[in-house]
Design brief:
By secondary structure, this protein is an alpha/beta fold. Helices cover 37% and strands 21% of the residues. The chain has one domain: NAD(P)-binding Rossmann-like Domain (Rossmann fold), CATH 3.40.50.720. Pfam families: NAD_binding_10.
């Protein structure tokens, strides 16, 4: 069986969860990682040998499309009050570059799926900041892309 090289674009590569993904992929000889971050200094060192670093912002469409070229999978570890706008930018770049597979980290509670009293607390304490996460999920679900939405606590 032949090993096929996969190109993985990691958006928000300086994030805490992204660090774990980068480390898990570091020893995979069939994976080439493109680490995309606004502040590359936040990317955990040492950098894996199977990676390249690109400084950029997902809202810069030209930079994002350039980084998207030749990618097989996009892993998005983004955050912010404009997360839905960021998600739409990622979706547009993926479609423009014919990239089909998206893994996007959002948040627990965006579907009011948390049981019992925790859902009340979650909505009261964190409810407003979750709205862009939910809008991002809606955009991803409607995108036509092959996607996985991760919702860590």
């Amino acid at each position: 069986m032949r090993n096929i090289m996969k190109n993985v674009l990691i958006l928000g590569a300086g994030g805490q969860i992204a660090r774990h993904v980068i480390n898990q992929l570091a020893d995979k000889q069939t994976i080439k990682q493109t680490l995309f971050a606004r502040q590359p200094a936040k990317i955990h060192k040492p950098y894996p040998t199977n990676s390249q670093i690109i400084m950029g912002d997902v809202l810069n469409h030209a930079a994002l499309k350039q980084a998207m070229q030749g990618q097989d999978i996009v892993y998005a570890n983004l955050t912010g009050e404009d997360l839905d706008i960021q998600a739409n930018s990622v979706i547009a770049a993926m479609k423009a570059c014919d990239v089909k597979r998206l893994i996007f980290v959002l948040s627990l509670g965006i579907y009011d799926e948390v049981p019992g009293k925790f859902v009340e607390w979650n909505n009261a304490v964190i409810g407003e900041p979750l709205k862009p996460f939910r809008r991002a999920a809606d955009a991803i679900e409607a995108s036509g892309l092959e996607y996985t939405i991760l919702r860590p606590a």
